[in-house]
């Protein structure tokens, strides 16, 4: 329906999430579509709450996305978020049946230092 399309476009990232949703929607797999939307919403709600007030005011759900690394661990990203080079968002995601939960830790990326034999070295 039009409402489903509009809602999914507001929530899902057009590159990383929306194509998968559209694929399952075309197969009439409503359960998988609901899972994609609920997981995306949950992760993005956790991201929003990890941001400060200024970044929250510029928050656009569809700019953020969740992918998985090669080991299946959730990763979050935003190609438009200017601080992404200095920050990282650690994501924990759990879903069982109809329940989904997500936690986000926002932290500064550790600076790269040279180390030898376990000792901290200065550049």
From TrEMBL:
Gene Ontology MF annotations: holo-[acyl-carrier-protein] synthase activity; magnesium ion binding
Domain of life: Eukaryota
Record keywords: Transferase
One Pfam family this sequence matches: ACPS
Domain 4'-phosphopantetheinyl transferase, residue spans: 5-81
SUPFAM superfamilies for the chain: 4'-phosphopantetheinyl transferase (SSF56214)
InterPro entries: 4-PPantetheinyl_Trfase_dom (IPR008278), 4-PPantetheinyl_Trfase_dom_sf (IPR037143)
Name by which UniProt lists this protein: 4'-phosphopantetheinyl transferase domain-containing protein
Species name: Pichia kudriavzevii (Yeast)
């Amino acid at each position: 329906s039009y409402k489903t399309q509009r809602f999914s476009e507001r929530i899902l990232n057009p590159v990383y999430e929306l194509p998968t949703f559209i694929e399952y929607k075309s197969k009439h797999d409503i359960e998988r579509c609901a899972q994609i939307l609920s997981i995306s919403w949950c992760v993005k709600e956790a991201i929003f709450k990890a941001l400060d007030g200024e970044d929250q005011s510029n928050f656009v759900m569809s700019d953020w996305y969740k992918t998985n690394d090669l080991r299946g661990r959730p990763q979050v990203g935003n190609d438009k978020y200017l601080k992404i080079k200095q920050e990282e968002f650690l994501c924990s995601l759990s879903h069982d049946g109809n329940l989904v939960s997500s936690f986000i830790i926002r932290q500064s990326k550790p600076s790269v230092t040279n180390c030898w034999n376990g000792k901290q070295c200065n550049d």
